[in-house]
Amino acid sequence: MLTNLKNAFLLISVLCYGGNLLAQDKATYIYAEKESVALELDVYTPKNIKPNDSLPVVLWMHGGGFSGGHRDSRNEVKLMKNLNKRGYIGVSISYRLLLKGSKTGAGCNCPKSVKLDVFKQSAIDYLDAAKYIITHKKELQIDPTKIIAGGSSAGAEGVLNAVYSKTFLIDDVSNYNNVSFAGIMAFAGAVVDADYISAQNAIPTVLFHGTADKLVPFGKAPHHYCTPDRFGYIILDGSDIIINTLQTLGTSYYFRKIIGGGHENSQIPFSQLDQIFNFFNKTVHQKENIQTQVNITKQ
């Protein structure tokens, strides 16, 4: 049945994509099949793309606490269309929502071992999606040297761990030798250990985070601020720790620190996209080195 489903999606993709690039907008592909679930991604391509173009891409992972959210929710679609206007191909992915239906969610009753496995599997799903678009770079018309990793909330944790913690979380990283990222933007995210950020894997990074986020820590603190006696007690390194590491390494970053802000800053910051993509234009495309921090006080 999955094979038939895959073939059906591929047929739809070909009908949408093939033969008329100027009219193409969105195509859906299955990038992996895991645990009897077909994992899909939507590719949004600018309508004015030319046959020989090879465009930069944002590979996006939605939020939702690893239990909800969807790749084609209203804001995700709005982001993809915004990317097209900026000359980017947008790719929004589904991934395994391993905490869907869980009584504990991602909170303090969710065991540390389960949380670590969720971080690991979400990073693997994200890297598999990246591997898929790189393998199909010609037909998708993407530039594999200019992939921006992006995500919000749980998606931000997923992409940050995929980029910066894969050697910590994943047993055989050789599966992803051909996967690389040119930049990353993460809204209210964290990594399991910022010590794994190095001169070899550090890339231009955009982070937005509120200092009073009670779910994903702004600095080095427990996930969901669980106390040490709870099953879900696990220390994460939030945006402030990541930025300090990048600053020491001399890597480009754009950090929007919202003093007193909470987890609402995981939302896609549409009003700030001009600043974000101006940063990527200078650092990814023009190879400039820029370190910028903007401090905003929550009103």
UniProtKB/TrEMBL annotation:
Signal peptide: none annotated. SUPFAM superfamilies: alpha/beta-Hydrolases. Transmembrane segments: none annotated. Gene3D superfamilies: alpha/beta hydrolase. It comes from the Bacteria. Keywords: Hydrolase. GO terms for molecular function: hydrolase activity. It holds the Pfam family BD-FAE. Residues 41-178 form the BD-FAE-like domain. This is Alpha/beta hydrolase. It comes from Algibacter miyuki.
